[in-house]
Amino acid sequence: MKSQKVFAVIKPNLENLNRNLKSMVGARHPVLSAASKHLFSAGGKRIRPAIVILVAKASMNGQNLKASHERLAEITEIIHTASLVHDDVIDECTTRRGVKTVHNAFSTKIAVLAGDFLFAQSSWYLANLNNLKVVKTISKVITDFAEGEIRQGLVNFDASVSINEYIEKSFYKTASLIAASCKGAAMLSDLGLSEQDEYYLYGKHLGLGFQIVDDILDITGSTQDLGKPSGSDLKNGNLTAPIFFAIIECPELQILIDDEFGSEEDISRAIYLIKKTHGIQKAKDLAEEHIQTAINIFSTLKSKNDSYYHHLLLISNYVLERIS
């Protein structure tokens, strides 16, 4: 993928982030410490902190990053990882990023406590930024995660959910963190309120596009590429854009949903039916709409540092290239 070169320009920042993450999540209790290190040793794409670093570099107009920018990138990844630990417990996933999930490697109790611990650690580091406005912006994300998870749980196997409701849930579960961290980076760069809000909207639409692409990959991707079993969303009754679009063309999908995919054959059959419709293409079109909206918003913020502006556009394209 051509757009993957976006990560090369900030490679030193991401390498430093990976080193810091392991020390930041150190816990006195050896089991909690082991669970936390297990998570971060698995790696990951680090897309969220990459976006934070690129926004920081673009908004600083070529000046050196502040230590608080890099710390915000680290906090963003810790919050994201904490949410994954809890999601894996709820969804009963056995693998994540190609390794055993925490509850599978240790226990459900340890996983819940590890997730709580990571949220607490992120809050402590956030408070130590000594910037109340950034604290208020980022801390709301944790409540958004809970809201998104509850909303999702209440509509499992419910095909009557509208696309707008799906987008709203996707905001709470994914886009909220990206939007808030983009705004937080702009705040730390001492930009004006209107520019902060533009960065927030850029992150929001980029995050929505990212989530829709993830939902497409749950249908089309392999377990190896996903780092978790394909069809996991379907199995757990988490209906997404490809399903909502496909069911219009294929009533048989409704029968499988009503039966809550009672067997493994039902999951395979549902994926086959979705791929036969225009559901995946329509979902891709929806993702492209949000990515283009993000690009259009960001074009009004073009900084003097054209290099990092260009790389923010590349990371937007990278989101779509994951399904090309």
UniProtKB/TrEMBL annotation:
Originating gene: preA
Gene3D superfamilies: Farnesyl Diphosphate Synthase
GO biological process, alphabetically ordered: isoprenoid biosynthetic process; quinone biosynthetic process
Keyword terms, alphabetized: Isoprene biosynthesis, Magnesium, Metal-binding, Plastid, Transferase
Protein name: Prenyl transferase
Keyword check for Metal-binding: yes
GO molecular function: metal ion binding; prenyltransferase activity
Stored NCBIfam families: prenyl_cyano (TIGR02749)
Sequence similarity: Belongs to the FPP/GGPP synthase family.
Domain of life: Eukaryota
Cofactor(s) this protein requires: Mg(2+)
Pfam families: polyprenyl_synt
SUPFAM superfamilies in UniProt: Terpenoid synthases
